[in-house]
Amino acid sequence: MSEWAAKRFWKEATVDAGKQDFGVMLDGRPLRTPAKAELRVPTLAMAQAIAAEWDAQEGAIRPETMPVTRSANAAIDKVAVQFDEVVGLLAEYGGTDLLCYRADGPEELITRQAQAWDALLNWAEGEYGARLAVTSGVIPVDQDAAALARLRAELAALNPFALAAMHDLISLTGSLVLGLAVARGRLDAQQAWDLSRIDEDWQSEQWGADEDADDLASLKNEALLQAARIWALAHS
Length: 236
Prior knowledge:
With 236 residues, this protein is of the alpha+beta class. It contains 10 helices and 6 strands, in the order E-E-E-E-H-H-H-E-H-E-H-H-H-H-H-H.
């Protein structure tokens, strides 16, 4: 990303519509990824969002303010060239899904987890035919291979841009089920974040908040909201 340290050198960012995809032009020249590939995305909405990010830059280019551009770069330079590996990495979350690992006490936390998470596991079973087993404590549980294969197939059917967004939906929540639930509209991103934080919220209630942990959580929460936005842009 070092080449992005330059100051703004273009006057206008525009969208270039191709037959099957869309690019972004800076004063008529195609925008390229850090690996020098031409940046082409699957939807007009995503291209427009990227163009808007570049038009919003003033002075030095700030990649941290350009989440859609960064996600598109990752999709082209990394996800597309390692697609099967990324699918495999994300599919592994199904074997250790957050929603399947429950507290063994106190009873109030056990109840809170069950009330929040059981419905999502039931949804995954109905939506994908994938029933995941639940355990308590840190004892690992073996998941049904056929169930995991069905969930993996959902990931493998995505294009690289959707898979890049899905990576964040899953990794930031620690749950393949929560990521898929956001993607399918079963939850919005904030609901998924709140559901993924039941254990942390419980600890805060018992022992008080940790300012540093809260700051980090806030950054992750915002990243999850951006991932959901990028997922939607990849399908618009």
